[in-house]
Amino acid sequence: MKKVLLSLLLLAGEKAYSCTTCNQDLQKAIFDSTFYPNLFTMMLAFIVLAGIVILLSILTAAREKRHPAEHKQKITVVPLISASTTLGIGIGGFVDGTILHQILQWHEMLSNKIPPTTLLNKSVNMFWDGIFHFFCLIVVLIGLFLLVKLFFRTDVIISWKTFIGGLFLGWGIFNIVEGVINHHILKLHNVREITTDIVIWNYSFLGISVIFLIIAWILIRHGAPDHLYSKKSDSQ
C-alpha cells in the first residue's frame, strides 16, 4: 500500500502536460541543434514522394491538353491512374502512421535515433509523427482534387478496378520509398524496434510492398478496356 501511495505522489508531482506550446523542456528537445538536421533527413523521403506526386499531376493534365474534351471520346485511363496513385500514396502514409506508429506503436518517426523510452522522447517523436501526417494530409487532398477534376472530362475511362489498382500502386510506392530511405539508408526508424529480427521486419515491409505493386498491375491491366491494348499493339 505504501508503494502505491508513493507512486501516486510521484506522479502527482510531474508535469501534467507535454504540449509543444506549454512545455519548455519539450520545446528545447525539439528545437535544439538537431532540429534542422532531423527536419532535412525526415523530409528526404517526402521530397522524393512529392516529386512523384508532381509528376503524376503533370501526367493527369497532359492527356487533357493532348486530347481536348470536344472529342467526346473516352480514350485514356492515365488521369485516373495518376489521381488514384496520388491518393494511394497519402492513404498508405496514413495507414502506416495510424497502425504502426499509433495503435501498435512498433516505431515512431525518429524512434531509432531518439528511443521513446521517456515521456519527453515520446513527445518529441509524436511531434515528428505529426509532421509526417501533415504531409500525408496534403497528398490526400491533392489526390482528391485530381479525382474531382476527372468528373469534368470526357476523355477519361472510369473503372473501379483501375481506381483500386491505382490506390495499391500509390500505397506500394509510398512503402518502398519510405522503407528504403527511412529504414535502410537513413535508419530513422525500423518497422519494429523491439525485436531481435529488425532486418527481417524491414525487408518483409518491402516484400509486402512488392505484392501491392503486383496487385496494382493486375487490377489496372484488367480495368482498362481491351481496345486500348489492341491499339498499342497495332501501333507497334
Question: Care to describe what's here?
Answer:
By secondary structure, the protein is an all-alpha fold. The protein has one domain (50-235). It is built from eight helices and no strands. It has helices at residues 2-13, 24-30, 35-66, 78-103, 119-150, 160-185, 198-223, 226-235. Helix 3 runs antiparallel to helix 4 (78-103) and helix 6 runs antiparallel to helix 7. The longest helix is centred in the first third of the chain and has 32 residues, at 35-66. The relative contact order is 0.14. Residues 8-14 and 229-236 have low confidence and may be disordered.
Summarize it:
This protein has one domain (50-235). The chain contains eight helices and no strands. It has helices at residues 2-13, 24-30, 35-66, 78-103, 119-150, 160-185, 198-223, 226-235.
- Helices and strands: which structural class? mainly alpha
What letter string, H or E per element, gives the SSE order? Answer: HHHHHHHH
Q: DSSP strand (E) fraction?
A: under 5%
* Tally of separate domains: 1
Radius of gyration: 22 Å
Q: Percent of residues in helical segments?
A: over 70%
Q: Which SSEs are present, and which pair or pack?
A:
Elements: H1 2-13, H2 24-30, H3 35-66, H4 78-103, H5 119-150, H6 160-185, H7 198-223, H8 226-235
Helix pairs in contact: 2-5, 3-4, 3-5, 3-6, 4-5, 4-6, 6-7
